[in-house]
Amino acid sequence: MSHTILVTGAAGYIGSIATEVLLQEGYNVIALDDLSTGYKEALFNSVPFYNASIGDISRLKDVFSQNKIDVVLHFAGAALVSESMTNPFKYFNTNFCQGQNLLDVMLLCNVNKIVFSSTCAIYGMPKPEKIPIKETTLTKPINPYGESKLLFEKALEWYKKSANLDFIALRYFNVAGASKTRGERHNPETHLIPLVIKAAKNKNFKLSIYGTDYPTKDGTTIRDYIHVIDLVYAHISAIEALINKKNHQDAYNIGYGHGYSVLEIVNSVQEIFQTTISLHIADRRPGDPSTLIADPRKIKEDLNWKPKYNDIKEIISSAAKFIE
Ligand SMILES: NC(=O)c1ccc[n+]([C@@H]2O[C@H](COP(=O)([O-])OP(=O)(O)OC[C@H]3O[C@@H](n4cnc5c(N)ncnc54)[C@H](O)[C@@H]3O)[C@@H](O)[C@H]2O)c1
């Protein structure tokens, strides 16, 4: 019997690609999104869609009473670090308070399994000796975005202890790449790979590099870029673990366990596009850690996650056709 998955944030970058892969893998999907940063065109005609906010308890009750949902994939959220510094209220409201509505309505309607989109931003500025980052590394967010995600993880832990909730929080590192039909489209775009591709395609767009004096091999920051399809399959591993009541940790780091510097990404894009990108060297941004690399061993061991697209050129090439 195929299981039914509620995807919140289904019109967004990751939620839409998750919907695509879930359908390919034979799951039934119900989509929910308030279209605040997502796009109607990213939805699937074959999937029932609720144009609703997770802040709207009455609409959430409709969703859960009209469908027999087995597991929730909770992607909906506000996800811009810089915006969170100037508008922390939005971040605590959307990512924490509204998320709590979702949990309450789930439990009211006897749905008790959820996979949550968390982030490496919960680790803040880890010390160099803590790289690659394990799940046990100290969590110390340095912006409201990371703090709101960590608070929601804490709420999940307490709901698990006291209300029979079962959950897995996946702490994504830098998600990139695309499926054949859907890609990354944020406005404003703050992620490096789409910005470098934009600079390669538009001669008038100068790419800003924030800091060239970090203690890394070429002075620029290093990140662990994970292909969105591998990330989505980590969610499928998490869904199966929850459904089959497999032993699992509360949270897993999701990355490949190695990183690329900003200049290495620029060089890869230049090679793929056979072009030269114009660069603007700017000061470091406050709160930008030097290096963020995941230690993904636990999810591989516990949930048998087997990434297949660990190739930066493939990630960039797949992303390119969705970037103007
Ligand atoms: N993209 C990354 O590299 C990355 C890294 C770490 C964590 N994450 C997390 O993954 C999730 C998805 O990220 P994304 O890049 O696809 O973002 P996105 O902005 O493309 O998608 C988020 C979706 O949620 C919807 N949404 C926002 N608030 C909502 C609300 N209150 N009710 C219903 N829908 C709402 C938006 O309309 C959008 O379609 C987010 O929670 C984000 O914090 C993303």
Per-chain topology:
Elements: E1 4-8, H1 13-24, E2 28-33, E3 49-51, H2 57-66, E4 71-74, H3 81-86, H4 88-108, E5 113-119, H5 144-163, E6 166-172, E7 174-176, H6 192-201, E8 207-210, E9 222-223, E10 225-227, H7 228-243, E11 251-254, E12 260-261, H8 262-273, E13 279-282, E14 291-292, H9 297-303, H10 312-320
Parallel strand pairs: 1-2, 1-4, 2-3, 4-5, 5-6, 6-11, 7-10, 8-13, 9-14
Antiparallel strand pairs: 9-12
Helix pairs in contact: 1-7, 2-4, 4-5, 6-8, 8-10
The chain binds nicotinamide-adenine-dinucleotide.
Nicotinamide-adenine-dinucleotide binds at residues 8-9, 11-15, 33-38, 53-55, 75-79, 94, 98, 117, 119, 172, 174-175, 186.
Care to describe what's here?
- By secondary structure, the chain is an alpha/beta fold.
- The chain has a domain at 4-177 and 224-255: NAD(P)-binding Rossmann-like Domain (Rossmann fold, 3-Layer(aba) Sandwich), CATH 3.40.50.
- Helices cover 38% and strands 17% of the residues.
- The protein has ten helices and 14 strands.
- The strands form four sheets. Strands 3-2-1-4-5-6-11 form a seven-stranded parallel sheet, with helices on both faces. The chain has a three-stranded mixed sheet with strand order 12-9-14. It has a two-stranded parallel sheet with strand order 7-10.
- The mean pLDDT is 97.
CATH H-level homologous superfamily name of the domain at 4-177 and 224-255: NAD(P)-binding Rossmann-like Domain
Shape, per Cα inertia axes? globular
Counting DSSP H or I runs of 4 or more residues, the number of helices is: 10
Name of the level-1 CATH class of the domain at 4-177 and 224-255: Alpha Beta
User: What is the rounded distance between the termini?
Assistant: 41 Å
